[in-house]
Amino acid sequence: RVARMRGIISAAGYVPYHRLRREAITEVMGGAPGRGTRSVASYDEDTTTLGVEAARLCLRSAPGAPSPSALVFATATPTYLDKTNATAIHAALRLDADVLATDAGGAVRSATGALLGALRGTEPTLVVTADVRTGLPNGADERDGGDAGAALLIGEGEGVIAEHLGSASRTEEFLDRWRVPGDRSKSWEERFAETRYVPLAEEAYAAALKAADLGPDDVDRLIVAGMHGRAVKRVAGKLSGGRDVLVDDRTRAIGNPGTAQSGLLLADALESASPGQVIVLVHLADGADAVVLRTTDAIATATPARTVAAQVAAGDDSLPYAKFLSWRGMLEPEPPRRPTPARASAPAASRRSDWKFGFVGSRDRESGALHLPPARVSFAGGNVDDMEPAPVADALATIATFTVDKLAYSPSPPTVFAVLDFDGGGRLACELTDVDADAVAIGDRVEMTFRRLNEADGIANYFWKARPVREGTSADGAPAGGEA
Question: What is the phi-psi region of residue 92: left when phi exceeds 0, alpha when psi lies from -120 to 50, beta otherwise?
């Protein structure tokens, strides 16, 4: 039975560093003061980069797990249409070419659809979800939304930390939330959605427990996720039956990250779970899905690379509302008076894919010298074409020197550039992100993160930046040139 046990091997969430205080909105727009904060993707983050960060944490949390045979990326706010977004995540994770990478996008329900498809499959599958939620200024979607990513590695064997016991779905066509391409999300009056979601959730929950041969009293932790707060609250009250089993939905601190919410809350619950606990996820979106899991003995020794709780606690809530609006394209400030970037070259990116997406340098086989970016000729001894790949994405580095540039083009000036010395060798001039320009200092420790450098002609130009290592949120890095 152990060999055939299928479920979650590893789970992780990624919460961006920036927070917007809801009070900051009402201070500008008026109205009743909001409470708490919402997570905000930085100007150089999108759903693809959020997914990469979550997936990196997920794979780092299970170093001995089998490599995924497929990667499925679900988001309601993709960077590209026509082009597959999952391929950039595939490249950043340096997965093998025979690993299928595909999108399951366009709707919030695609998150649980991808999860259920993986749980009912046979191959190791990495399910990645992400969302960037916003709305018109002073609206409910702007106030209550959030940005985040999540990743779940699904497979079989002794490494499974949460076994899939059963699941059920109820589907019904009704209009509660919609968006046409290029527009912002709209929703029907919430009382209507409540009348549809509550019975569907009750039916799916009961059917999933029956499939798992369990009853409501066997449930130790209950997660209820969905975009309609009123329906979620009503369903949570009915299904919990007054028992203290509900998992905190984190909306007070980070808002509702849409497509990523169910995976993020599931990862959060697993990070604090003990062996033998029954966890049920109920997701409300165009119907209801219920997934029943039971944690195994393996969860007792699982070590998350970075917990959701730590990331929630480490957020910075000093983001001004005007800067948030400019990041979202609602407010266009005067840009630096320098030319905007040209669009990225597709052939050039393809030729240097390992460096651009995987952050792989080269190491001289004879001298051990690390070259960033990769080189054919070694600076130590002059050896030619005698290099081996050296992945550096998980290495930590130290700032050797830096400059603050207020003239270079940036969607959010000023730009901070630094020269980094990587642990284990290697030096690189690199842009910093998620940083206060006035607080940067020589000797600061940084880690690498996958971001957007710029966008031109609709092409997102991805590469790696460095961000500060912050206490409680950063795992130890691998040696430079070590295995990612």
Answer: alpha
| C-beta separation of 114 from 84 below 8 A | no
The sign of the CA dihedral 40, 42, 46, 47 is negative
Structure tokens at 394: 């998980």
Q: For tokens 């082009």, what's the residue?
A: 83
pLDDT digits (tens, 9 = 90+) for 160-198: 999 999 999 999 999 888 888 778 888 888 788 889 999
β pairing state of 427-431 and 445-456: unpaired
Say what the pLDDT of residue 481 is. Answer: 47
Cα distance between residue 380 and residue 471, in whole Å = 36
* Residues 49, 37 contacting (CB under 8 angstroms): no
Structure tokens at 194: 């409540």
Predicted pLDDT of residue 3: 45
Q: Centre a 10 Å sphere on the Cβ of residue 203 and count the other Cβ atoms it contains.
A: 16
H/E segment holding residue 460: strand 459-468
**Apex 169 CA angle, 292 and 267, nearest 5:** 40
| Residue whose entry in the numeric block shows the structure tokens 């430079």 | 480
pTM for this predicted structure? 0.95
- Sequence letter at residue 400: A
Token pair of 201, please? 């959730």
DSSP for 22-76, written as a single string = HHHHHHHH-SSPP-SEEEE--TT--HHHHHHHHHHHHHHT-TTSPPPSEEEEE-S
DSSP of 143-175, one letter per residue?
Answer: HHB-EEEEEEEEEESTT-SEEEEEEEEEE----
Alpha carbon of residue 48 to chain centroid = 8
Buried b (16+ CB within 10 A) or exposed e, 156-166: bbebbbbbbbb
CA distance 222 to 242: 12
Share the mean pLDDT of the chain: 93
